[in-house]
Each structure stands twice: as structure tokens, then as C-alpha cells.
Please model this.
Amino acid sequence: MNWTEISIKVASADVDRVAAIANMSVPYGIYIEDYSDLIEQSWEIAHVDLIEKELLDKDRNSAVIHIYVSEEDNAVESVEYIKELLLADGIGFEIITELVNDSSWADGWKKFFKCTEIGEKLVIRPSWEEYENKDGRVVLSIDPGAAFGTGTHATTSLCLSVLERYISSESTVLDIGCGSGILSIAGVLLGAEKAVGVDIDAQSVRVAKENAEINCVSEKTNYLIGDLADKVSGKYNVVCANIVADVILKLLENVADFMEDTGILMTSGIIDMRRDDVVEGFSRFGFKIVEELNKDNWYAFVCRKEK
Model:
């Protein structure tokens, strides 16, 4: 299949706001080239201070967000929608479009995805990378393919670091908007009894199933294509939703129907400018905030139903 790659160049200071807009604009994955903290990240992630000259020569003041629109969809419409939102938000930008195929897409972002330790227990390992597990971490191997979710973005890493504290051998996990399946698979690897993921995108569900196989948890996971209310049944004691603010607000209308009385709702993907909207939504729909976390202008919340 052919795709239109939309590359949005913005100031590094605006990258989180633009990433939020990009995630709202297309149903597929994005990847971000941002070298503003290259030296700090190279030590934090890889524990090295020697960096290739090619990387050192990269622009540290700007970032490029890459998103993809399939040939079945309207790329021109997506570009105009993004432009409208960026102009309304007063963000300076430059947009370039290019026709690419599946292999070009896959090879394009793989060079930016490395092994990443998260929280106290987890490490996210790209399926094509080696990892020397000196500290006995739980290794989650993942190949995101065309689905959003590598674990390296602030929204997903917040979810994963929280998830490890709430999972027990009796946990059942529901992952809403599962993308690559990273949260549901992590839940099972951390000890959960079972996990169910649901996503409106068939390609995401396919990738999630493949990642479950890579991690040998297929027997404890199930992935469904469609909307939450139409496809999911039963109640769960850990419900995850790493999506965008507007979808979370809509989700709050009926997500309690799928939660055990003592269950938790873990949400992320909330950019700082939408934090207050989501907090108000929790209150309106009877949820009490147990934890509030933030990283790089993104927020995550752990909530319980009010008794």
C-alpha cells in the first residue's frame, strides 16, 4: 500500500502541542525527530556519551513530526485540517508531503526506536534490537508496525510506569484504543491474569496480536476491532486508555460499565492545555482522581469510581 507522509517542521518548544494535534488528525502512528536534548537522552537511554557526527549535526532548535495517510484516505484534507489547527493555535510550521510505501515507512522510524527502561520493572525492546538484561527487568519486545505505541513517548511511558504498581496476579486489564498492544501486553507480562484490547483500526489490532505472539502471551490476550460499547463485555479491574482528551471525555460516559467496583481507570494522552477539561470530566461522571502525573507537557491520571 502507498501512503502520503506528512512532515511537519516546528520549533522544538512546540513539539508536544503539535504532536497532540497530529494524533487527532490521523488514525495511524506518528514518529518525532527531536534532537533538542540529544546529549542528555543519549546518556539516559544508552548510557554513552559518544554520539555519531550525523546526529550531532542535526538541528537542535526544531523538530519534525511525521504522520501518514493511506492512499484510501484524503491526504489533502488532512493537511488542510492540520494547517487550520496550527494557525488557530498560533504555531509556526512548515509542511512537506511525500508519497511512500510500507517498507519506506517501516525503515524510516526504526532508527529512532531503541531499548528503553521504564519505571522500576520494565524495559521496552524493539524486536530487532538486542538488550543485555543485567537488572532482571520484565522485557517487552515490540514491533509497532503501522500502529501507534512504542513506549518511548511520554504518554505511554507514564502509563507503563503506573501500570506496574497496580498489576497483580488477579488483575484483568482492558486496553481501550490499544494501538500496538503495548499496555495490555505489559499488563500480562507484569502478572495480570488476562488482558483485552480494543481499537477501531483493524491494522492496529493485527499488530497487537503479532506483538502478543512475540511476547508469548497470546493465550492471555484478546484483541477486538471496533468501538468499546459494541465489542467489549465483562468487567475489569484495570482499565487503560492512552488516547486523546476528546476521546477520553467521550469514554467517561460509559466506561464505568466495564469496571469492577474497586477497579481503576488509567488515562493518558492528555496535553497540558486540555488537563482542566479532563479533570472536570472526571468529576462530572463520578470519578475520583487517585494519582496525577505529568511528563513533557503530558498528563496521566489514575481514577476510581466514586462510592
About this structure: The two ends are 50 Å apart (CA to CA). The chain has eleven helices and 14 strands. Residues 38-57 have pLDDT under 50 and may be disordered.
